[in-house]
Design brief:
Structural class: alpha/beta
CATH architecture of the largest domain: 3-Layer(aba) Sandwich
Radius of gyration: 20 Å
CATH topology of the largest domain: Rossmann fold
Strand order of the largest sheet: 11-10-9-12-13-14-16-15
Shape: globular
Helix content: 25-40%
Number of domains: 2
């Protein structure tokens, strides 16, 4: 079956890199090409999307991180266009899954935003999803279609091993990060033979994006701490955690963050913080404030004195190749790195 990938949010270079890498692993008769998409926005805000290339009978991949209402609408319109264009399969690639923080009811009469997004994509016609490091694992259960969930431990373990010192320990910034930290700990032991301890932090907040109190559970005196988390939005929690760790005797604090949302004062807070480095993926578009341009083919990109970006191109390409070739994603992980 022919496959075609469309970049909905303008990351054409990343789409090209993903395509080139996936074709190395995919069978010769299951190669992926890059398609062209037309996007319009009328003066009243209405959005229109159509494809320049035929999608009839093809497996269509839609690459986007729809973190705004317009991008979510654009994705749904693209799915509908592919369905009406007689695509055989329609698989959104969502490195950043929108509304993932709303994975349960936090108020008695509140919504479950992640479930609503899942319903929306399936109703539009998506036949599968590729996504990266969901805020909560249970979001996979919101879908009744196949989900390829790429985990952060497979993206960041190499660069953490390069930052390792005999004093290194891992840290979870809140109670919900325990599983993520333990998975990274096991990955570092398995792939790099590094045995790291970890500490946890407990925070309380009375409103969104504002931390009232933070407590460290464990000893960080004389340690090089690496915080593991899935998301950094305004960076308030992250910078407060770094300050608290340094206050309690840590030598240095780094952070490994799957999704660098970096809204509002985030960038300035990080630059002014006790953090020595923040490592993120390119799951979201890198803003001009961080770097003039980050190319998808680069594995490690230093965007400033404190921020390093790691490309997801290889892992997404492997996911596409596993679908195209009808093989296990895990089986491809043992293939020589390209």
């Amino acid at each position: 079956m022919d496959s075609i990938i469309f970049s909905l949010d303008g990351r054409d270079e990343l789409a090209k890199t993903i395509t080139d890498k996936s074709n190395i692993w995919s069978p010769d008769d299951e190669q992926t090409t890059i398609g062209s998409i037309n996007k319009q926005k009328f003066s009243d805000g209405e959005i229109c999307v159509d494809f320049s290339d035929s999608v009839r009978g093809k497996r269509v991949y839609l690459l986007t991180s729809p973190n705004t209402s317009d991008e979510i609408m654009k994705l749904n319109l693209a799915i509908d266009a592919a369905k009406r264009g007689a695509a055989s399969e329609i698989i959104p690639i969502l490195p950043y899954f929108p509304y993932a923080r709303q994975d349960k009811k936090d108020q008695s009469r509140g919504p479950i935003g992640a479930k609503m997004i899942a319903n929306m994509l399936v109703a539009a016609g998506a036949t599968g999803i590729i996504t990266f490091d969901l805020h909560a694992d249970q979001i996979q259960g919101f879908f009744d279609i196949p989900i390829t969930h790429l985990e952060g431990k497979n993206i960041f373990d190499d660069i953490i091993s390069l930052r390792y010192t005999p004093n290194t320990i891992l840290a979870g910034p809140d109670a919900g990060s325990g599983k993520r930290v333990k998975r990274m700990q096991k990955q570092l032991q398995k792939r790099h033979s590094l045995s790291l301890n970890y500490v946890m932090m407990d925070k309380t907040r009375t409103e969104a994006n504002k931390v009232d109190e933070m407590v460290i559970i464990g000893n960080v005196v004389g340690k090089d701490v690496i915080i593991i988390d899935d998301m950094c939005d305004t960076a308030g929690t992250l910078c407060a955690a770094a300050a608290e760790l340094i206050k309690h005797g840590a030598i240095s604090v780094r952070a490994v963050i799957s999704h660098g949302v970096f809204s509002g004062p985030a960038y300035k807070r990080i630059m002014d913080s006790k953090l020595s480095e923040v490592i993120i993926s390119n799951s979201l578009r890198i803003t001009e404030e961080l770097v003039e341009q980050v190319h998808g083919e680069l594995k490690y990109t230093k965007t400033s004195d404190k921020i390093t970006v790691i490309s997801l191109a290889k892992q997404i390409a492997m996911a596409i190749a596993s679908i195209n070739g009808h093989v296990s994603y895990e089986a491809l992980k043992s293939v020589e790195t390209v």
